[in-house]
Design brief:
The chain has 344 residues and is an alpha/beta fold. It has helices at residues 23-39, 56-61, 80-94, 105-117, 240-249, 257-261, 292-295, 327-340; strands at residues 10-13, 16-17, 20-21, 43-49, 66-71, 98-102, 122-126, 128-135, 142-153, 158-162, 170-174, 191-194, 225-229, 252-255, 282-286, 303-308, 321-324.
Length: 344
């Protein structure tokens, strides 16, 4: 177990692929900056890869104070063992108090490996992170400045706050889009620490021969307008109305978990706790009941319009504008009104 260091830095894993930083790494920079400022410590970023030194200044511009650069040909492509070994080694050397990963396939793969090797706790899929104090109800021991790792639990029916008072570093994975990405500040300066990590032959037993990357078919996170259909749409054929409304508005098509489970649309359109978190200028929810898992992924939208035949649907509790009625009547009317509006 890594030693407990109350003055340790707040770290992020700077996930990158083929020399491009993952968006969640930049989103974590801002949150790490907030946590570090509350603790009075620095923000560090671990950047493993090959020929990736040019990414260090991008991390600094987004709020990082110190970039731990491990540039090695063995890290050209992500494989679990060498990447986990890099993180294990640096954690042992520098003893950060918090380490954050994106809840991506990469982060979910090697984050638990690091937690196991360092005998630390790790909370998955956090939706909020805060600094606070905890008193042990049994021993009355008070722990100061712990990381509150907040995430939905029991199918989203409760929100759990998890703390690690003894096993450090405190680790968490965070879903992409949960935190906003701060605007970069090109005037910021930071320190780049070049590290050399030795690998045993057994750690390099997996070789990536070729990578196949499937292009995104929908960019929900980047869309300014999102039109989402729920189970109330009624059928896969009826979902065409959602697509037509999104096209008329120039927006992206989203879906609730219930709509995806019913087979109305693919999972790449999923908005919510188990999908994408969005913050568009306009969010239109059509036939979406408003389960807490869905609301967690869209409640920060600037304007929310809800269309539902059930006046008691939970989605109306967060909607700025609510329309009670048959979507088969209301949505075509919306589409016609948009097409018929005068062109300026």
């Amino acid at each position: 177990m890594t030693k407990k260091n109350p003055q340790g830095e707040v770290w992020i894993f700077a996930e990158q692929h083929e020399g491009k930083l993952n968006d969640v790494a930049l989103e974590l920079c801002g949150k790490a900056r907030e946590l570090a400022d509350a603790l009075g410590v620095k923000v560090g970023a671990v950047l493993p890869g090959y020929n990736v030194s040019g990414l260090a200044q991008t991390l600094v511009a987004h709020g990082v104070d110190r970039v731990y650069l491990v540039d090695d040909p063995n890290l050209r492509n992500f494989t679990s063992s060498p990447y986990a070994h890099v993180m294990d080694t640096l954690i042992e050397k520098y003893a950060p108090q918090i380490v954050l990963y994106g809840a991506t396939p990469t982060g979910r793969d090697f984050g638990p490996r690091v937690a196991s090797a360092t005998r630390s706790g790790l909370t998955a899929d956090c939706t909020e992170l805060q600094i606070g104090d905890v008193v042990d109800s049994k021993t009355q021991t008070e722990y100061k400045n712990l990381l509150y790792q907040i995430r939905p639990a029991f199918g989203g029916n409760i929100v759990a706050t998890i703390v690690n008072p003894e096993q450090w570093p405190q680790m968490a994975t965070v879903r992409e889009g949960v935190f906003s990405k701060n605007e970069p500040d090109a005037s910021r300066t930071g320190e780049i620490v070049e590290e050399k990590v030795e690998f045993e032959p057994g750690m390099l037993c997996v070789e990536v021969l070729e990578r196949f990357v499937e292009a995104k078919t929908v960019d929900l996170k980047g869309a300014r307008i999102v039109v989402t259909g729920g189970a109330g749409v009624g059928s896969k054929e009826n979902f065409q109305l959602i697509r037509e409304l999104a096209d008329a508005l120039g927006g992206a098509v989203g879906a609730s978990r219930a709509a995806v489970n019913c087979g109305y649309i693919g999972a790449e359109h999923l908005v919510g706790q188990t999908g994408v978190t969005v913050r568009p200028a306009l969010y239109v929810a059509v036939g979406v009941s408003g389960a807490i898992q869905h609301i967690a992924g869209m409640q920060d939208s600037a304007k929310i319009i809800a269309i539902n035949s059930d006046p008691d649907a939970p989605i109306f509790s967060i909607a700025h504008y609510g329309i009670v009625g048959d979507l088969n009547v209301i949505v075509p009317w919306f589409i016609k009104a948009i097409h018929d509006r005068p062109v300026e």
